[in-house]
Fold:
Amino acid sequence: MKKSIWVFHLNTGSCNGCDIEILDALTPYFDVERFGIKLVASPRHADLVLLTGPITLKTLPMVINALRAVPRPRYVLAIGACAVGGGIWYDSYSVIGGVKEFKKILEEHNVEIDKIVFVPGCPARPEAIIYGVALLLGLVKEKVSKEVVVID
Amino acid sequence: MTLKKLLKPFKLLSIAKKAGVVTVLYPYQKPLITPEFRGKIVIDSTKCMGCGACANACPPNALLITESNEAVILSYFVGRCIFCGRCADVCPTGAISISNEFELATTNLDNLKTILVHRHRECVNCGRPFATGRILEYVLRKVPMAEKYINECPDCRKNRFINIVSIRKR
Amino acid sequence: MVMNTSKSKLSREEIIDALKKFSEDIIFVESAGLIIRVKKDRLREVARFVHDVLDAYFRTMMAVDERPINNTFAAYYVFGKDELGLNIIIETHTDPLDPEIPSISDLVPAADWYELEAWDLLGIRFTGRKLYRFILPDEWPEGLYPLRKDVDYNLRPAIRKTLKQPPTGPKVPVGPYHPALHEPEYFELFVEGERVVDVRYNGFHIHRGIEKLAESPRFTYQKVPFLAERICGICGFVHSVSYTMSIERVAKIDVPERAEYIRSIILEIERIHSHLLWLGVACHLLGYDAGFMHTWRIREKIMVLAEQLTGSRKTYGINLVGGVRKDINKDKIQVAMNTLSSVKEELSKLVEVITHVPQIVKRASGTGILPKDDARKLSVVGPVARASGLNRDVRKDYPYAAYPYVSFKVPVYSEGDNLARILVRIDEVFESINIIEQLLDKIPQGPIFAEKIEVPEGKIGVGNVEAPRGEVIHITITGKGRPYRWRVRAPTYQNIPALKVMLKDAPLADAPLTIASIDPCFSCTDRIVVVDLKTGKAMKRNMEEIIRKNKVI
Structure:
């Protein structure tokens, strides 16, 4: 696992709430640069792709091209309710529906993603984003787990 | 005059010095969170009765109720939750409470699901499953005299009522 | 007919009399305004009369599929007369089998985009102008119009599987960078040498089908405020308030005063955070990163305050039809007062520094000028209009919520350049702090939710709010349990066509600041495509490259 990750921000049609929180993580109160994280301008230099938005129909080809340009190993951080599960408009005519549905399309285009970390939240707090990155780096452990309760 | 104007930008140094270091070294220090923050919801399985009011009020359908013959299944998918808290507003038994939990990152989508399975109670007359046990207990609390027919399914209740009325008419 | 058209002399009755010569069918609806129904062949005359003679500005246009109601397609053009606070709505219908309406985009330049949108989403043809694909992707099947009532909201046409090539823009050979590399570009600047001659906007990548979702069986009246709040993550609360306002006016719901005060407080907090965000981004674009960091550091206190008052840093989720969900008690009022006074103190010192930094002052003054006449013709809204000398503010002209109970100034500058737009926004932040302090002082006791909520069917309501970027206007036609048609118009939609005027014959180095000064969604303005007309090459340039290459200092 690398220590100093260069991230690329990819907006696939989000409302900008999660994007502002990503930018907020760079500001003095949260300061992700102390982890060595830097925002880069091109996906060819990136280790991690920060993906926000439910992936609308109009941005689909550009998202595929951008992900294809990221060198292996490809890591994706799906931030926000839209990227994880499609958000409040998961079944609209203009929306693919988040990274879960998008993986099937990616397989058709032969683009593989090595690891995806899902960060729920609407919008996802800067601390939640930092937690997601820390999870990817192996600094913290997962807290959530599946629960099934049967009541008679 | 112009020298004063030129030197104004250097006031930034005094602003910076006054602000000091404000960085919160999360995750090694406590995060900048307030007690009112709406995080993940917690469903109390001892109070939930499987009525579906929360699923009705949930805008992104993160809470879903599916009914089958044997059970009523309430599933909560955190991934699509918008953390609005409407479910906690409308729940009649107060089973849903809002916690402060925001550290929800995971690599496996299944970890974000919470599932409650309410087994249907069977009718004492015909044996068909018809309602969850908790709903029947809730109705009994509100209407104590329903004890006489609460354990029968609606069809058997209808038949019994028709029989009673037709006997009376004779 | 002799008309006294000087500014504040016309009354509503005189307007009705003047409009009678076009049509007898004029009614005044309390929740919407003056509605005049005309046949579509008289549409152009009425539009010219209302826009030029009556001097009302164009607010929005809504096209509706009314086939279930009266077997027509309808279009509602909304004009606003600021001095009276009156909406003048022109209603016209057309045949459902061959929908066609004469275009008014040469008389009212601001109506251009609305007609393209109605063509794209509803299939109404506007005669006398060129129509092209606007909102939906190029590969969307022909003849499938999503907003029509016979099309499902969750329809998935099969084009997803065949999208192999990205849609290309102008047919020029591409330079060293592939134009569709990562973020979809929004602005295409056509240059000759180093001067910009034209700009084209290629957007609507964030189209999610919200207007159709609100009509779908999944949604009800009380669920739509949550949908409205996520239209924009920076100014979402204004959309939520605007929607609830339109429904409350139709249903004549008596919203308690305390709820109106709370809504106004949260609206002003949103304005402060949005302007501080923009100020930081503007500093960053000009290369002054220290300003960016300090502005966002001060902004963080406002976000924490919003979390304490509403329960979430953004997308507050406290608004419902009929009132609010969360109350403010005395402790929270005290916390808010303390936060605001510390923000005011720190910000005044920081603003003094920022407005004296040479690179900002020299690059921002005299660039991106929008003259007052063009601003009036294009019906721009918000700080863009106020920086060009138009005294237009929805809080004063069409009052709503608790604004009639407070006193505040509306900053207006007349130069119309980038520096004027920066100064307007800075002044507005201090005015907002002033407004919130007045509201927190005067807030009355009482309930926060209305007692009776009954929404009648088939009525029209208009809600408008002054967002940080300009005027937001929502029109709703009510249906059974959910809206029949919901029209959302965000302010940037009306402001982007003004860029053509601002960027004409300007040096390329000034383009990033000019584009950012109308305050569009920030993530769209990061990448622009520069097309050099002399060599025919199109190259993608980073905003920062353009700025740093042509340093002024």
